[in-house]
Each structure stands twice: as structure tokens, then as C-alpha cells.
Amino acid sequence: MGKKILNNVFTAIDIGTTKICVLIATNTPNGDIELIGIGQHPSYGLKKGVVVNIAKTVDSISQALKKAEDMAGCKVEYATVGISGGHIQSLNSTGIVAIKNKDISQEDVDRVIEAAKAVPISKDQEILHVLPQYFKVDDQELILDSIGMSGVRLEAQVHIITGAISSAQNIIKSCEMAGIKVSDIVLEQLASADAVLTESEKELGVGILDIGGGTSDFAIYKDGRIMHSKVIPVAGNHFTNDLAIGLGVPIEKAEELKKKYGFVWEDNYLDLDKDSVEVDLGYQGKKKKVETYSLYDILQPRAEEVLDFLCEEMVNFKLKSFMPSGLVLTGGGSILTGMKELAEKRFNLPVRIGIPTRYKSIDNKNICTVPDLLKNPIYATGYGLLIYAGGHNNSEFSFSQEGSVFKKVFSRMKSWIYDFI
Ligand SMILES: Nc1ncnc2c1ncn2[C@@H]1O[C@H](COP(=O)(O)OP(=O)(O)OP(=O)(O)O)[C@@H](O)[C@H]1O
Ligand SMILES: [Mg+2]
Fold it and tell me: Which residues are close to ligand 2, an ion, with C-beta < 5 A?
């Protein structure tokens, strides 16, 4: 007998460069997220966060989806999915309008945001998110909520994120071919930020860097709003490839070595229990001796390169003053031994590793409501997407409407104005 589609169930799919992760959950009566299904499968169809092989991507999504549905014991129809890749661009823009009836109404706010959206973007790009930062009413600056205020001139500063139309289309297509409809596409670092940052970090000002397999996704929050975002095209897979080439070992062995013995902060060498390891090359019984210190020699410059990209961005846009709470590293690449210490030294800022964490106060005690299984930086995006999916009712979005699915997903995305603030 086929599985049933249940109400009150929502799904997130993190289509990563190294893994596809499907999470199915339901809301409990007290507002918690209860995970009922998880399915993961290696991802073979992506490069640097972008779908490059539809058939392989469809296969990986189908496998992960099946595992999650089997565990949940139900079938799912819709999912919220993430988007990243070198094609993602962002900019801050300003719009100005005259206030219609002295007191600012929702209509004035909508008009000023529409005005701020009027920036030239290239033909192959589509606006993914328009996220308000601050409003200015006459001469009064840095207003977070302008509705109800009096004045004659309203100004809005917004953060606009755009992505390649074709990349988003390929994500939607791959999911549909795997048997699931896309209800929303969310920029991956926005999802990761929702999963790992605390409200006070976001208020005070903090940076988040999700170091995945194909891309390192950066964002800055202050006053609870996103101030800046950037996708850096270097991440965990580059570290692994460097090791494979540098040591002359197969990729799978390089990946194993990186996870087990890799380090990028020199002091960590003292913690290793081995000076050298023997690597089975996987053919004709051949073996190779690898000095563990040589992993540092190869990995450390790559780690510096990721931090160089970040540093350049921070200098170019004068971002450090927005980050008094420091930098939160997440994604699988953040688990690499010494990454935290290296970033701390480089930026002279507090750095922590972010794992999905949601606290709920019970009798003044903070209880973490994230299932133990997901308390790992590799699930930051997936869990963030799940939080997003839980807050949005798919039934309000009908696929039976006229027009292409793609157009509908995008029009829905652009109406998210207040979702991430
Ligand atoms: N223990 C570990 N030590 C070092 N690196 C690790 C460890 N565990 C995972 N990684 C690395 O993390 C990367 C995968 O991270 P993650 O699962 O966040 O990426 P992804 O979401 O698939 O990719 P992307 O977000 O770039 O599309 C891989 O390069 C993997 O080698
Ligand atoms: Mg990822």
C-alpha cells in the first residue's frame, strides 16, 4: 500500500555539493519542531553549489527522499530547498518615496521597498530576496519599524540578493523529477544563520561563515537584520583535492585523512597520536607512508585562502565594526581541526563553531529543542530550511494556478520581505 500524505508535515531539502539531506518534521502542539524523517545521500550532480548534472542530482534527491519518507512513514509533496553558488550576488540599495497621508502606512512601506528594488541587474539574474535593513523618515535615521511614524519623506535601505535564473530552474527541475514540488528557495546562509545564531548575536552584530563542500557562504547580521552577504567559491572539497594531489593519494583516502588527521593550526600537531600513517592506495596492494605534519603544510594555505577572501570582503565593505559578537563558523568545513583558532588569530575576533541550536525556556532553564542527530555543523542549512518550512504553510500556495512553477516560486520569494527580519 502506498504511503499517505499527512497534514501538518513540512520538508526541507539541503541540496549540498557533498550531500543531499532531506528532513521531514511536524509541529508539536507546544510549537516545537518534531523531526519525523531524515534521509541523506551523497551528492554527485553538483559543482561549487550548482547543479551540473540533472540525472545524478535527481537520483541523489530521490534516494535521500525515499529514506526520509520511509522513516517518517508518509509521503511528502512540497519542500523548501536551499540555493548557493558563485552566481549569487548581493547589493545594498536605497529607495525614496513621499509619504501619502502624513502617517506611514504599510502601503508606503511597500512602495518604498518597491522603489529600492529598482536596480539594474543582468538579464540572466533574478531577484531572490529583498531584505529591509533600515528606514529613514525625514532626517531621522536607522529606524527599524517605520509604520505609524509621521513625516513627509520615507527612505528604505534594503539588501538585495540575486541568483542565476538557470541555477534556480535546475534546482526546481531536479526536485520535480525526483517527485517533490518546490514551495520556496532560500539562500543557504540565511537558513544556516536561522539555525545556529542566537537572537542576541544577530542584534549586536555577528558574521556567519558556512564552509560547505563547494562554497563558503558568508553573511553579516546587525540589529536583527542582514547587512551583507557573499558566496566564496572555495570550501572543503578544495582542501580534499589539494591533499589528493599533494600526497598522491585517491580522493576518498584524502577525505579520510583530512577528517582524521587534518589540521590547520600548528599547535594541534601536538594532539595527534601519530607522526605518520600508512595509506592503502587501493590498487595492487600498494601502500604509501604519509607524514601527518605534511597535512598541515597542504591544508593550512587553503584555510588561509578562505580567510583571505573573507578578509578582503570585510576590508572592502568595512564590515568588522558590524561584528562585535564575532564570527560563527558552521558547515562541514568548520569541523576541520584548527579552523576556529586560525580565524580567531586572523580577525582578532571571538570565533565559535555553530551547531543547530534552538532554545526554549522552561522554568527559566534553557532547553535545546534540536534532536541530537542534527547537532552537527553539516546540518546547519538543512535545519534552517526546516525552521523556515515550518513557519510557512504550503497550502496557501497553489500549484494549480496559471503560469509556470518557476514564476510562482520566484514571485513568492520576492514577497518574503519580512520573513528574515
Ligand atoms: N570532521 C571533519 N573534518 C574536516 N572536514 C570535514 C569533516 N566533516 C566534514 N568535513 C568536510 O565538510 C565538507 C562538507 O560540508 P557540508 O556537508 O556542510 O557541505 P555541503 O552542504 O554538501 O556543500 P555546499 O554547502 O558547499 O554545497 C566536506 O568537504 C567534508 O570533507
Ligand atoms: Mg551546505
Answer: 16, 212, 381
Vertex 11 angle, CA 405 and 58, to 5°: 60
- How far apart (Å, rounded) are the C-alpha atoms in residues 33 and 258? 34
Query: Distance (Å, rounded) from C-alpha 191 to C-alpha 100?
Result: 36
Asked if residue 173 and residue 152 are part of one domain, the reply reads no
Same domain, 258 and 315: yes
Residue 353 and residue 204: Cα distance in Å, rounded?
Answer: 18
Could you read off the pLDDT of 382-407 as tens digits, one per residue?
999 999 998 875 433 333 334 455 66
Atom index in ligand 1 nearest the CA of residue 215 equals 26
Task: Check if the beta carbon of residue 27 is closer than 8 Å to that of residue 390.
Answer: yes
Which band of pLDDT confidence, cut at 50, 70 and 90, is reported for residue 372? Answer: very high
**Ligand 1 contact, 334 CB (< 6 A):** no
Beta bridge partners of 182: 79
Q: What's the domain range around 73?
A: 9-86+165-194+371-414
Pocket test for ligand 1, best of 18, 234, 259 (most atoms within 8 A of CB): 18
30: helix, strand or coil: coil
